[in-house]
Amino acid sequence: MSIAPESLHSRIESSPLYNPDLAPAGPERRHWGTYNYAVLWVSMSVNILTYMLAASLIQGGVNWKQAAATVFLGNTIVLVPMLLNSHPGARYGIPFPVLARASFGVLGANVAAVLRALVACGWFGIQTWIGGEAISTLLGVLAPGWGQFAHRTAICFLAFWLINLAVILKGIEYIRFLQGISAPVLLAVGLLLLAWAYHSAGGFGPMLSAPSRLANFADFLKFLVPALNATVGFWATVSLNIPDFTRFARSQRQQMIGQALSLPTTMTLYSLIGILVTSATVVIYGTAIWDPVQLLSRFHSPVAVVISLVAILLATLNVNIGANVVSPANDFSNLWPRRISFRTGGVITCFMGIALMPWKMLANYRTFILGWLGGYAALLGPVAGIMICDYFLVRRRVLLLDDLYLRRCAYEYSHGFNWRALAALAAGAGTALVGLVVPQVRVLYDYSWFVGFVVAFVAYYVLMGSQRATAPASA
């Protein structure tokens, strides 16, 4: 006996796996076109961390051409899993946590969501540390005696952390007026730094003359591998939760064109500012300064420093709340909806941001690229491999939409967990991370995102072998 549509709809809405935010986007909400996705990537790419990622490559020893090529190649590569994971979002109108239920199980999807949430907590801490640096530098300009205080950056970090916490407790609506301002503000700061570098270094000729410190092409390849992995890992989180955005697409074609046109080009162009400015610091100061806040502290014009730092501070607050709090707060809330509210999830995010010690991640380019970016890429690469394999090969792009919101249905697996997916995740992440502790296979960690993706993809495909033939019909 079939279930009446009205009864099924009522059953889904009463399910603990359902709420209006997770519901499939209907036709009335699908109004994003090519322009919207192009603008989305402009707003996400123009941020301080894009600048620092590119600048850290110069500090690592490459020249400007090698750095720009690395950024462009890395973002072109990450565009592939980005578009693959975009497809189910646009086709079924579902967000990332719901899509993950198809491969990990209706409860196992929380594993993937929490991994993504923890990475967002790390980015929250990094952005907060940058904001604290900006406050400390600003106070040093306004009150020169501030430079004599011990632990001044740590004090300002905690102050900016409290500002973020206050916004979360009060509600995100307190900074709605800042929405859309962060990208143009940071673009203006970047252009200011570029103009300064041009003037101080004596033109583009001297700026671009800083040679590579790598002796030969073989040395460059040794640097390129982890740098390329880090560049791909930079957007590893968004490559998972991109369905959160593509669920509102008018069509597959429009979301694909918008992303393909904007992601590699915008990242490369804004990165080029960081690359050129940092190359100029090698000429001007004899060393590569990859942190724009530290570079601004060397400016002689207090007005320019104050305006730039205030702009960085406001933009960092806006980006931090929007990009690094909303998502993990919802993920933590999804673990225990009756006990963990959005605000409680936001508070957890704040404390996790401190626990992950962002000052160590930003200590130098090695800890940022090899430690932070390479480390979490080893965890998120396997998740992407499992989800893409499940959707395109196991299920052949067919999902039972209603069952994604119901217990004891197609995606229940074993008490809500697909242990095959968890085993593939462990295999992919474990293979990549073994290179961190065994020097002889260091290349596995240097390629952590790629290794984790491929191993998890293959392992999941093999483990799901008995279900592949019937997957489209029974999920």
Observed structural traits:
Hydantoin permease, mainly alpha
Can you put this structure into words, describing what you see?
The protein is 72% helix and 0% strand. It has 475 residues and is mainly α. It has one domain: Orthogonal Bundle (Hydantoin permease). The longest helix has 34 residues, at 109-142. The relative contact order is 0.18. The mean pLDDT is 86.
Summarize, please.
The protein has helices at 5-13, 34-45, 48-59, 64-92, 96-104, 109-142, 152-170, 182-201, 204-207, 217-234, 236-241, 243-246, 252-285, 292-296, 302-324, 326-335, 342-355, 358-361, 365-394, 419-437, 442-446, 448-463, 465-468, 471-474. It is mainly α. The chain is globular and about 70 Å long.
Order of helices and strands: HHHHHHHHHHHHHHHHHHHHHHHH
Using only C-alpha atoms, the radius of gyration works out to 23 Å
Q: What is the mean predicted local confidence, pLDDT? A: 86
Structural class: mainly alpha
Q: How many separate helices?
A: 24
Which CATH architecture is right?
Orthogonal Bundle
The CATH C-level class name: Mainly Alpha
| Binned strand content | under 5%
Largest sheet: none
The tally of domains stands at 1
| pLDDT < 50 runs, ≥5 residues | none
* Multimeric status of the protein: single chain
CATH topology: Hydantoin permease
- Helical residue percent band: over 70%
CATH superfamily: Hydantoin permease
Distance between the termini: 20 Å
**Number of DSSP E strands:** 0
Backbone shape: globular
